[in-house]
Amino acid sequence: MNRYVTKRNELLAQKVIKGLASRNMTGYYAESREAALRLALELIPEGSTVTMGGSMSVSEIGLRAAMKEGNYNFIDRDAMEDKRAAMLAAYDADVYLASANAVTEDGMLVNIDGNSNRVSAMAYGPRKLILIVGMNKVCDDLDGAMKRARAVAAPANAQRFDIQTPCTKLGACMDCKSPDTICCQFLITRYSRHVGRIHVILVNDALGF
Asked: Could you tell me if 138 and 131 are in contact, meaning their C-beta atoms sit under 8 angstroms apart?
């Protein structure tokens, strides 16, 4: 990434971090995927019970692999036969790892879910929530964040899982009510009532969808 984009991302990240702080959330800026991984590991004590949704961003920085290989009680739903049990275990986890479909410049988080296990765990349950968010997901305002979540993240995720929705074929949101829609629940995190629960690591990279 060229130095001008990096400088822009650093300045924008500081604005987002101030917005997050005003909403009782903690923000960090990582200059690289490697730096993001180091930051995340500093936030996760060894021995912690950790789980996650299906975040590409978490995997892309190597955090999922670090949880599997390190001294953690990692609940890996992909390795469990009973997926529902794995999802329910998230609510009592010490740490939940995820990303966001979009983040506003003033610190609001936007997420869309199909099964809703991810957004429900983000809203309540796990003692600590760590989000790995590429700077490609930062939007001007809530309207822009909602548009990004629906028009960019949702179609890409639908294609990723080969789900037969209109957006899989057209690459754009059709506001469908398909039985396979992944746009079932929308979560806007405007404020965190619990001090120290939500941590957002902004990464100087394009991560996830």
From this structure: no
Q: Are 104 and 142 in contact (CB under 8 A)?
A: yes
- Sheet architecture: strand order including 198-203: 26-30, 198-203, 128-134, 95-98, 49-52, 73-75
Dump the DSSP string for 2-24. Answer: -HHHHHHHHHHHHHHHHHHHHTT
Dist. CA 17–CA 10, nearest whole Å: 10
CA angle 56, 57, 63 (to 5 degrees): 100
Classified as helix, coil or strand, 99 is coil
- Determine contact, residues 44/36, Cβ cutoff 8 Å: no
Q: What are the residue boundaries of the structural domains of the chain, listed by start?
A: 3-203
Q: Which CATH superfamily is domain 3-203 in?
A: NagB/RpiA/CoA transferase-like (3.40.50.10420)
Closest CA to 54 of 38, 76, 32: 76
| Helices within 29-183 (DSSP H only) | 33-42, 56-60, 63-69, 83-89, 117-123, 142-148, 154-160, 166-170
Which residues, in sequence order, are bridge partners of residue 202?
29, 133
> Could you read off the pLDDT of 84-130 as tens digits, one per residue?
998 999 999 999 999 999 999 999 999 999 989 999 999 999 999 99
Token pair of 179, please? Answer: 């039985």
